[in-house]
TrEMBL record:
<keyword id="KW-0732">Signal</keyword>
<dbReference type="Pfam" id="PF01103">
    <property type="entry name" value="Omp85"/>
</dbReference>
<dbReference type="InterPro" id="IPR010827">
    <property type="entry name" value="BamA/TamA_POTRA"/>
</dbReference>
<keyword id="KW-0998">Cell outer membrane</keyword>
<feature type="region of interest" description="Disordered">
    <location>
        <begin position="382"/>
        <end position="413"/>
    </location>
</feature>
<dbReference type="InterPro" id="IPR034746">
    <property type="entry name" value="POTRA"/>
</dbReference>
<protein>
    <submittedName>
        <fullName>Surface antigen (D15)</fullName>
    </submittedName>
</protein>
<keyword id="KW-0812">Transmembrane</keyword>
<feature type="signal peptide">
    <location>
        <begin position="1"/>
        <end position="29"/>
    </location>
</feature>
<dbReference type="InterPro" id="IPR000184">
    <property type="entry name" value="Bac_surfAg_D15"/>
</dbReference>
<keyword id="KW-0472">Membrane</keyword>
<feature type="domain" description="POTRA">
    <location>
        <begin position="36"/>
        <end position="107"/>
    </location>
</feature>
<dbReference type="Pfam" id="PF07244">
    <property type="entry name" value="POTRA"/>
</dbReference>
<feature type="domain" description="POTRA">
    <location>
        <begin position="108"/>
        <end position="182"/>
    </location>
</feature>
<dbReference type="GO" id="GO:0019867">
    <property type="term" value="C:outer membrane"/>
</dbReference>
<dbReference type="InterPro" id="IPR039910">
    <property type="entry name" value="D15-like"/>
</dbReference>
Length: 599
């Protein structure tokens, strides 16, 4: 009797080599029965698997001519059923021809599975991939597919170095699957000079000695870049000391984060005025943000204006942030009513605010802000004069003694309703998954905020104000981006002019004046198509829609629209925005120039 065998050591293998450990005995190992007639075909050794199931995989039938290649194919087909550890073809020479018997050795009966080395993925999750039924034969084909699915899941979750290092079984059907997840052995940071090392490493949120995850590494690089301290951030994977271990090397290129300006002006009314501006988003390399603007000199207190702001992004190990602002600023203000300029006057805002923030997940932060602000009507400039009940008589009977007349524009309730002290608490929640906060190409940002003024906090006003904003970014091709933004707001109560929603200007409705529309309700949206022009210069096509108003309901039919074109330029002193827009119904185009990133 001659034999051809198809066998394999199924249960002490890696997934990569599972199908390569089985071989067919060369033809030389068996006598040559070529040309003889197959008189009978049967199977033996099967206990759990029915003979019919095995024979269904066999192509050779009685009466066929014996050929070695056909025998090999049958052995392969039987083995691919997945139930057998060994497959042997035995041949018996009889006067009528050749008898063929396929002798099989069944796999063990499956009992349970154990996992070793799976620190990154829970055992319960991995068990869901094993499609073996307790009490039935282990199916090697199904098991191979299960192992392939496990590795695919690991890689999808970012554990790209993970491999199954061993699969073993015991005679009583216990499977043991071992993993090498690929460790992050160490982290190295290069290129920093001004920035303190801990300011970078605290953003990484990567644990040495844990399984390497490419998704977490990419997010870590994003977090470092989004600090705004670096012109470029790159990563490199270096071989570690252990097999399948890596060392992460992060290289940064620092950029200018501080600004300083000094200036002076002179007028007959105010005399000599000095201006100093100082700001740094990475103060002394600590990651803290500071800004100071101070206007001094002149003949009146109104020219001694100042603004001071400070933010500490990491107050503790839980990434609690603290920021505060102190200000006393007088500025010229254009007051619009239903979109029409009513008056121009100097107004002062004086007060302070403090904000605490804390993350509620990788992409979510919650904030609480307390504000104490006082707005004062200073000097009337032009238009309606709401400050003085009397004005000089424009047509006096006695030019040498002109006297005064009653001011027809004077509204005794205007100052009381719009100027005074506001004390409020604002609660905010922000989700931000943008890949680049300065020039996003993908991701989503939404924010919800609720401001409660008065309600036992004191002050002159009592109102509730709610704002929601959503932004979405789509990458088109290699470097083109479509950006969408939608904002809505609602407020009720006794709200001053300074607290109302405003629409118009470079940040909301381009092609219209700053704060041209105000009210206790607001709806605004923008769509931009951004495209590269040259290095550090980006072009923009955009359209805006929106309005703010008082009264009931949302007046969607009254929304204003505009279209325009713009440039975004990255400079050593920060990003610059230049937009030219034409508002619907406006007589001419309007140019908007501002510093800072785009939405």
């Amino acid at each position: 009797m001659e034999t051809i065998r198809r066998c394999g050591r199924v249960f002490v293998v890696t997934i990569v080599g599972l199908s390569m450990l089985f071989g067919v005995v060369p033809a030389e190992a068996a006598a040559d029965f070529t040309g003889k007639t197959v008189t009978a075909v049967s199977v033996s050794g099967n206990a759990k698997v029915s003979a019919d199931a095995v024979m269904a995989a066999v192509k050779i039938k009685p009466g066929d001519t014996w050929q070695l290649e056909n025998i090999k194919k049958d052995i392969q087909s039987i083995y691919e059923l997945g139930f057998f550890l060994d497959v042997v073809a035995n041949f018996t020479d009889v006067p009528e021809g050749v008898k063929v018997v396929y002798n099989v050795v069944e796999n063990p009966v499956y009992k349970e599975v154990h996992f070793k080395g799976n620190n990154a993925v829970k055992t319960e999750k991995l068990q869901g991939f094993i499609k073996q039924t307790p009490g039935s034969l282990i199916n090697a084909k199904t098991l191979q597919e299960n192992l392939r699915d496990i590795e695919k899941y690991y890689h999808t979750e970012g554990y790209i170095l993970t491999r199954i290092s061993d699969v073993a079984t015991t005679p009583d059907g216990v499977l043991t699957i071992s993993f090498n997840e690929g460790l992050l052995e160490d982290i190295s940071v290069k290129g920093y000079e001004k920035t303190k090392l801990h300011v970078i490493t605290r953003e990484l949120k990567l644990d040495k000695g844990q399984a390497f995850n490419i998704n977490k590494v990419k997010r870590a690089v994003q977090r470092v870049y989004n600090l705004g301290y670096f012109e470029d951030v790159n990563m490199k994977l270096l071989p570690g000391r252990e097999p399948n271990g890596v060392v992460l090397e992060i290289s940064v290129v620092e950029q200018r984060t501080g600004t300083f300006s000094i200036g002076a002006g002179y007028s007959k009314a105010d005399g000599m005025v000095g201006i100093i501006g100082l700001g740094d988003n990475n103060f002394l390399g600590t990651g803290d943000k500071i800004k100071i603007n101070w206007e001094f000199g002149g003949k009146s207190d109104s020219n001694r204006d100042y603004e001071f702001g400070y933010v500490r992004p990491w107050l503790d190990s839980k990434e609690t942030s603290l920021g505060f602002n102190i200000y006393d600023v007088t500025y010229r203000y254009n007051d619009y009513e239903d979109g029409h300029l009513e008056s121009t006057f100097d107004r002062n805002r004086k007060g302070w605010d403090v904000t605490l923030g804390r993350p509620a997940g990788e992409y979510i932060r919650n904030y609480i802000t307390y504000k104490d602000r006082t707005d004062t009507y200073e000097d009337w400039v032009s238009g309606l004069n709401q400050k003085d009940p009397t004005i000089p008589d424009p047509s006096p009977a006695d030019p040498d003694n002109p006297g005064t007349i009653s001011n027809p524009d004077y509204n005794p309730d205007y100052l009381k309703d719009n100027f005074g002290t506001t004390r409020s608490i604002t609660l905010s929640r922000v989700f931000d998954s943008r890949d680049n906060v300065f020039s996003p190409t993908t991701g989503l940002r939404y924010s919800l905020s609720a401001e409660f003024a008065g309600d036992g906090l004191g002050g002159d006003f009592d109102y509730d104000k709610y704002t929601v904003e959503g932004r979405k970014y789509y990458k088109v091709g290699r470097a083109h981006v479509v950006a969408l933004r939608l904002t809505g707001g609602y407020a009720d109560g006794n709200m001053p002019d300074s607290g109302k929603f405003s629409v118009g200007g470079s940040d909301t409705l381009r092609g219209f004046n700053d704060d041209q529309y105000k009210g206790d309700k607001m709806l605004a949206g923008s769509v931009e198509y951004r495209f590269p022009i040259v290095s550090k210069v980006q072009g923009v096509l955009f359209s805006d829609i929106g309005k703010a108003w008082d009264g009931e309901g949302y007046k969607l039919n009254d929304l204003e629209t505009s279209i325009g074109i713009g440039l975004r330029i990255n400079t050593p002193i920060g990003p610059i925005r230049l937009d030219v827009a034409k508002g619907h119904g406006q007589d001419s185009t309007r140019t908007h120039f501002s510093f800072g990133g785009q939405f």
